[in-house]
Amino acid sequence: MGRVYNFSAGPAALPVPVLERARDEMLDYQGSGMSVMEMSHRSKKYLAIIEHAEQMLRSLMGISADYEVLFQQGGATLQFAMLPMNLITDPKEQTADYILTGSWSKKAMKEAKKIFSKIRVAASSEEVAFTRIPTQTELNLNPEAVYCHITTNNTIYGTEYHYTPDTGKVPLVADMSSNILSRTLDVNRFGCIYAGAQKNLGPSGVTVVVIRKDLLGRQANLPVMLDYKAQAAEQSMLNTPPTYAIYILGLVLDWIKEQGGVAGIEQRNIRQAQRLYQVIDASGFYQCPNQVDSRSRMNIPFTLSKPELTETFLSESNKAGLVTLKGHRSVGGMRASIYNAMPDEGVEALAQFMTEFERRHG
User: Fold this and answer.
1) Catalytic position from the list 45, 110, 118, 175
2) DSSP reduced 3-state for 136
3) Mean pLDDT to the nearest integer, 126-130
4) Catalytic-residue membership of 104
5) Largest separation between any pair of C-alpha atoms in the chain
6) For 16-258, CATH number?
7) Is pTM, for the whole model, over 0.90?
């Protein structure tokens, strides 16, 4: 079987040129006589790899010297606890704001509550089944909060922030796992950004953290692996980092640069999302539950007017090489995840399949 168009929510598809380069360098990386997976993380060859990954990320995102870039393990889920552990100084008295827009923001808040006794919900769209993003005017922000946390794209529900909340002097913290580097943004608006790599950056196993330096060292006596300041001091090398995942991440960043950088990728993402939403909106056969101005460019959920055909749709699309379109178990229906690596041809193939399926079954 040839390569399929993989619409998985993550781990997600990687750019084919990245996979081809990794294949070519698998047994002998740049004359070293070994794979990246085999070399010491302290070697000159590997230090050049991790330094390249950091510099590429800084360049593509416009990250200034005021921020540290860390390559961590444990996924975004570890960051749910690591953030409050590092940023609070008085867990009984201080507060943090959380804006709830889906399952992952709720999980982030749940972990923070184990450390903060006074977590606040600054806004939530749960009452409308997370089908939209709260507006700026709806945010009930506490000016004394230690930070305000958002999840910029909601993988399960298919909604996305199309604005950056104004939190005043309170540091804005963002889980960008499922839309990092998919759109331009001003990093200086954030105190901390974190993202699991397995959707837009590379394979699972590495998590990127971009954190403003003045937020480091607030809390003493943390376990060393959970201490941002200690991690920064050792340039993410307190222990053996996920070396191969960081290497692939660097290759993905090179590929993004070749696509015209983040601005070029953003235009492609807009075009692809519009193509699928047009098919859905032009039809009475398909429905997307989300408010139009909150729709995600990365994750597009949809259902059928004849739900009894859902399994038929999934079976036939799979046979057509359009795989992992099943919606999350908590939502049902279908979900097309079209991260940065999804080619135009994949989106067009899905759009044409949907049109033909409606013609036969609508």
Assistant:
1) 175
2) helix
3) 97
4) yes
5) 64
6) 3.40.640.10
7) yes
